[in-house]
Design a protein that fits this description.
Elements (H helix, E strand, L loop, with lengths): L1 H23 L8 E4 L10 H7 L8 E5 L2 E4 L2 E3 L6 E5 L5 E5 L16 E3 L5 E3 L2 E4 L10 E3 L4 E4 L2 E3 L5 E3 L5 E5 L2 E4 L4 E3 L2 E5 L2 E4 L4 E5 L9 E4 L2 E4 L7 E3 L7 E5 L25 E5 L16 E2 L2 H4 L4 H6 L28
Parallel strand pairs: 1-2, 2-5, 3-6, 4-7, 5-8, 6-9, 7-10, 8-11, 9-12, 10-13, 11-14, 12-15, 13-16, 14-17, 15-18, 16-19, 17-20, 18-21, 19-22, 20-23, 23-24, 24-25
Length: 343
């Protein structure tokens, strides 16, 4: 028996070693560039099919090129699918859309999303995300709980609850994006920065509903954004607290006359006024007047405002998270080169 054990154990060890090596070596054996095209000219016709074909925890970053087209599908990039980049051919014509909403069958707000992104270090460029359900209640276009997620030159179209910025310890960066909605259309617990974005209000309601956990240094931060509104809109609040320690700050943003003079709402709970952190700094436009803002909101000093940079926000979002901030700077720059065909 002992002799048999002596033979079997080394063989098992060799098998384990071989399998382990196969998982971590020879990265060239895996595919790292995919193309999706509705006309069949790519590797796949559907985005989810390409996601399903990707190696989980890839040995190199994966790029998915998405050709122009309307992709009517719900997509889910699981947490195991890290380091994935989606690049659309053009933001106006590369569209991911679906029409689920809370109350449709067993669906809830959180399962209504057209796109759910959970893989860390995700990047999207030149893509439109749509929930086309209409004004039927909660209907999410993007649910993102990935950490170190970047969206550049993307559009997010919906009504109530357009973007769910999820993940209590997640950081997300929206640069040069367009976001529209009605009620609480940017909501969630993550640390999220919206820089140089255009945000359109489609109803008299609330732009944000942060759900910031207690102890977080930053919640939602809007830097140099332009807020607009439909012609029928007359009264919009910058935010209301979904959770008691909600944090939302607008800095150097253009605010239209449709912004409520009070600026902020306590969600019918005066106790929230003691814990929520709502602030502004040097906003402009007819809606930026601070004279009639609620007394429990703040106007930042120049010294306080200086700390509101993406580098500082993301490095201080939570003491348990790495201070590395190079991730949000790794966005492609220069002329856009579209692949001629499948890779």
């Amino acid at each position: 028996m002992m002799q048999l054990v002596k033979i079997i154990l080394p063989a098992l060890a060799l098998l384990v070693s071989t399998n382990s090596q196969a998982q971590t070596s020879n990265p060239q054996q895996y595919k790292y560039v995919f193309t999706v095209a509705k006309d069949g000219s790519g590797d796949y016709k559907y985005i989810q099919d390409a996601i399903d074909a990707m190696r989980v925890f890839p040995l190199e970053p994966i790029t998915l090129y998405i050709k122009n087209g309307v992709y009517t599908e719900k997509i889910d990039l699981p947490a195991n699918n890290t380091d994935v980049t989606f690049i659309g051919e053009s933001v106006e014509r590369t569209i991911i859309t679906f029409s689920d909403y809370s109350g449709r069958g067993k669906l809830t707000t959180f399962t209504s999303a057209t796109a759910k992104i959970s893989g860390n270090r995700f990047v999207a460029e030149n893509i439109t995300f749509v929930n086309a359900a209409g004004p039927v209640g909660q209907a999410v276009a993007l649910y993102v709980d990935a950490d170190k997620a970047v969206f550049k030159n993307c559009r997010f179209l919906g009504n109530q609850d357009t973007i769910y910025a999820a993940g209590e310890n997640s950081r997300q960066y929206f640069l040069d994006c367009y976001i529209e909605g009605t009620t609480d259309f940017i909501f969630g617990p993550s640390t999220a920065v919206f820089q140089n974005c255009t945000i359109k209000c489609k109803a008299d309601s609330y732009i944000t509903a942060a759900n910031t956990p207690k102890g977080k240094v930053f919640g939602f931060v809007f830097l140099d954004c332009v807020i607009t509104a439909d012609s029928t809109v007359t009264n919009v609040y910058l935010g209301r607290p979904w959770r008691a320690f909600s944090k939302t700050v607008f800095l150097r943003c253009q605010l239209p006359a449709t912004i409520a003079a009070a600026g902020w709402d306590n969600w019918s709970n005066p106790e929230n006024e003691k814990t929520a952190f709502y602030a502004e700094y040097r906003n402009t436009g007819a809606g930026a007047a601070v004279k009639n803002r609620v007394s429990w909101s703040r106007q930042l000093t120049a010294q306080e405002a200086a700390s509101y940079t993406p580098e500082n926000i993301f490095s201080n979002s939570n003491a348990t998270i790495s201070t590395d901030t190079s991730w949000f700077k790794k966005i492609r720059t220069g002329p856009f080169s579209w692949p001629l065909g499948p890779k």
